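Thread: quick sanity check before group meeting

JM: Hey all, I'm pulling together slides for Thursday and realized we never actually wrote out the predicted structure for the chain we discussed last week. Dropping the sequence here so it's in one place. If anyone has concerns about the input, flag it before I start.
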Amino acid sequence: MKILVLNCGSSSIKYKLYDMTNESVLAQGGVERIGIEDAFIKVKLPNGEKRQIMADLPTHKEGVALVFKCLLDPEIGAIKSLDEIGAVGHRIVQGGDLFEKSCIVTPEVEKGIESLIDLAPVHNKGHLAGIKAVDELMPDVPQVTVFDNAFHSTMPDYAYLYAIPYEWYTKYHVRRYGFHGTSHRYVSHRVCEFLGVDIKKQKIITCHIGNGASVAAIKYGKVIDTSMGLTPLAGLMMGSRSGDIDPSAVCYMMEKSGMTPHDMSEYLNKQSGVLGVAGISSDMRDNENADNEGNKMAHLALQMYNYRIKKYIGAYAAAMNGVDIIVWTAGVGENQEGVRWDSCQGLEYLGVKMDKERNHVRSKEQILSADDSKVKVVMIPTDEEIVIARDTLALINGREPSDF
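JM (edit): ok, ran it. Output follows.
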């Protein structure tokens, strides 16, 4: 069976088409700038070549239609008929308390996702638009939703609740949800398969470090805590997100600047983090280059960035009474050896001992720690799309998705 995986953002659509008989990728690419001038789709061909096609894409419906058109194209496509697509799987960022596992799309599920837009206005609105576009263009194809926060639903209440009046939780669902759950789920299971150990006997800290970044504490296969909160803004310092900040500091900045809540949210999400401190870029590669050239602000930003990762690793080791495996994944975690190295320095008391030569690697399954390290430090490239495809296949075949 062929399954199409869609990840719809506010103005973008990433896609992969899988042949699930062997989980091979038949086609992949992305649509960008939906609803904006100069919209386009970029298609990655099997030989690695990329094609970019400009288009007028006022809504997600036109964006999804363009994906279908490219999949059917005799030259750059992968199928001869849309009937070959057996199902469509969607990534959904925020499932709130309503969705704690993947599910088949129904009108009730769509209403549920819509009701959670306030908790993730940019993400959920785009996801829902993608679902509705498929509803219109391929009304008979089954669709499945896989929720980013679902893997974190095993957190105990004392970990996910905020220390505010309880009615904010009962009335408005204000709590820690966590995100990147599909990635944390994939790499935590894959690392145990890679090492040949039983996940139900391991204490694992997974570090999904990209432009958005989060850390999760996974004890015997279940998440007990994670760094992101009600929204993806909380936790680590990120490319353009502040991460944890004193709420009173936010109020103080609003009073001084006259910013509205919306303005401040945009400021903390898009103008802060590494970009805000260094003033160079939200891309870690640019900041590492600037640091190597002697830029003091870039150096400070990197110190802050790595220090906060180390703090969360230490906190989660304490929460689990130890750690057996630390996993690095996502764009920065897989490619920036300096971030991995610096973040793991000072963790010798936990039994972490890095190997500099092994750490000199990019985006490859590999042990990064020394042979005599009590804690295994491992890089596992993430693959959220295959998790979505597997869950989709299981559900439309009447089975419950497996953990991996």
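AS: nice. The domain at 199-384 is CATH 3.30.420.40 (Nucleotidyltransferase; domain 5). The mean pLDDT is 94.
JM: adding both to the slides.
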